[in-house]
User: Which sequence fits this backbone?
């Protein structure tokens, strides 16, 4: 627990009510995750949520307060939400103990999403929603192996110019790292860090070693190839990435093939936006963007409410 945090109830033994664990495969190593599905009516769309470094799929099922979980909010509003454990995380992490780089993760994750959509053909179009390293993966998937019926990409905690020295980008522990990831403690519900004990996970070595590759030029091979609408969300207290006007203008200019690029600012939020008080506002804005993508793709005439 971080200093100054007020403890709440002990961490939950499992996911939120209505959320279940799921196991998929990339053909060799299982890919696990958490799934929330609408209980009434057809799915409006599928949100594939990809967590950041040092977390797992439970990042999208924060349990310190009922307003925090995307995996419960999405299904209540008619969306299927699939939060995956990226390679090197989850129950089968030891089978990839050293992890994979973001580029290498694209194949296993794409295969898992393809398997899921084949099993669940009525989930609708797809929004890739990624946080931090998961945001890089979401953009990489959109560029190089987009899911069928991909509608758009939503990323938070991702820029293209580091706000920290490159040698610190792959840091795996320490007080300074906690400040970068969380920001002011008052941005989070009481007991967040106690409730998140089951969400935090060791960052695999190869993933940590490759963190700086994105800013060093990896994004230049990805961003121009994305051909769907993209939305970037920057938290008010985002400290990993530079997000001033010139930085953002240069970032969005690189998305030359994207038909639309949106940039949003999220007040009273730190890097880990989906675990703070601002999580509900962020998730609602992301789902609103998904609806805009559905409309642009002509998906609103499919009989859904």
Assistant:
């Amino acid at each position: 627990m971080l200093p100054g945090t007020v403890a709440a109830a002990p961490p939950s033994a499992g996911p939120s009510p209505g959320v279940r664990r799921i196991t998929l495969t990339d053909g060799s190593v299982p890919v696990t995750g958490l799934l929330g599905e609408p209980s009434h009516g057809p799915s409006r769309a599928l949100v594939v949520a990809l967590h950041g470094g040092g977390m797992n799929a439970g990042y999208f099922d924060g349990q310190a307060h009922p307003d925090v979980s995307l995996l419960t909010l999405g299904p209540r509003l008619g969306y299927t939400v699939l939060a995956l454990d990226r390679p090197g995380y989850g129950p089968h992490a030891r089978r990839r103990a050293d992890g994979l780089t973001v580029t290498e993760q694209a194949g296993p994750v794409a295969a898992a999403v393809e398997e899921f959509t084949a099993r669940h053909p009525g989930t609708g179009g797809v929004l890739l929603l990624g946080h931090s390293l998961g945001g890089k993966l979401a953009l990489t998937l959109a560029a190089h192996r987009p899911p069928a019926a991909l509608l758009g990409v939503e990323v938070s905690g991702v820029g293209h110019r580091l706000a920290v020295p490159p040698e610190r980008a792959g840091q795996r522990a320490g007080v300074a790292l906690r400040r970068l990831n969380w920001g002011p403690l008052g941005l989070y519900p009481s007991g967040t860090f106690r409730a998140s004990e089951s969400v935090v996970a060791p960052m695999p070595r190869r993933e940590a070693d490759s963190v700086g590759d994105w800013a060093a030029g990896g994004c230049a091979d990805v961003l121009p190839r994305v051909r769907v609408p993209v939305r970037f969300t920057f938290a008010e207290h985002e400290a990993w990435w530079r997000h001033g006007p010139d930085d953002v203008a240069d970032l969005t200019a690189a998305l030359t093939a994207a038909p639309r690029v949106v940039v949003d600012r999220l007040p009273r939020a730190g890097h880990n936006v989906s675990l703070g008080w601002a999580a509900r506002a962020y998730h609602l804005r992301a789902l609103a963007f998904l609806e805009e993508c559905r409309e642009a793709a002509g998906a609103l005439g499919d009989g859904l409410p």
